[in-house]
Amino acid sequence: MKKAFKTLLSLSAIALLTVYLFVFSNIVFPWQKDNAIKTTLEWSGLTELPIENKNINITKRGSMFTRQYILEFTANTKEIKNWIKKNKKLNKIQLRERNNTKTYVISGEKGAIGGTVKIKDNLVIINMSWS
After folding, report:
1. Contact 106/44 with Cβ under 8 angstroms?
2. 125: number of Cβ within 10 Å
3. What are the residues whose beta carbons fall under 8 Å from the beta carbon of 123, sequence distance 6 or more?
4. Digits of tens for pLDDT over the chain (131 positions)?
5. Are 75 and 83 in contact (CB under 8 A)?
6. How far apart are CA 25 and CA 61, in angstroms?
7. Cα gap 32→10, rounded to integer Å
8. Residue 56 and residue 14: Cα distance in Å, rounded?
9. Bridge-partner residues for 68, per DSSP?
10. How far apart are CA 122 and CA 115, in angstroms?
11. pTM for this structure?
12. What is the pLDDT of residue 47?
């Protein structure tokens, strides 16, 4: 009986840990990366990332009731300028510039609240939230 109880307890702990990691944690697993990038772009209403991008990093925050994705990438200045031109949404928004950082405050799409696109030198940060 004790062995069955220990086995059941161990399996329950593994199941809870698995649910936590996949549902509640802020970890973006490698197999989730493409979907997280796609979701961030859909929520922001922006086009695909520049072709010549590097150092893509995606961070996930929130709970089962909220979600925030922070997508960072680097590209050369020409690629970033072309990407901005392709994104009609960014061209319609008044740009804020402070301390060499260009900031676009954008409304969300597909149920997202909204967020920002910040560009400093060759680094682009897209920060979108959903609730």
Report:
1. yes
2. 18
3. 72, 73, 74
4. 688 777 877 777 787 777 766 666 677 888 889 999 999 999 999 988 998 889 999 999 987 788 999 999 999 999 999 999 999 899 888 889 999 999 999 999 998 999 999 999 999 999 999 98
5. yes
6. 8
7. 27
8. 31
9. 61, 129
10. 20
11. 0.83
12. 87
**Which phi and psi (to 5°) does residue 125 adopt?**
-125, 120
Residue 4: C-alpha distances to residues 1, 11, 13, 95, 101 (Å): 5, 11, 14, 63, 60
* Amino acid present at 94: Q
> What is the residue type of 26?
N
Whether residue 40 contacts residue 126, with contact meaning beta carbons closer than 8 Å, is answered with: yes
Alpha-carbon distance of 122 to 66, in angstroms, equals 30
Find how far residue 12's CA is from the centre of its chain.
31
Residue entry with tokens 């909220």 = 66
Count of other CB atoms within 10 angstroms of residue 14: 10
In the block, which residue shows the tokens 């329950």? 12
Length reported for the chain: 131
Token pair belonging to 66:
């909220």
Residue type present at position 101: T
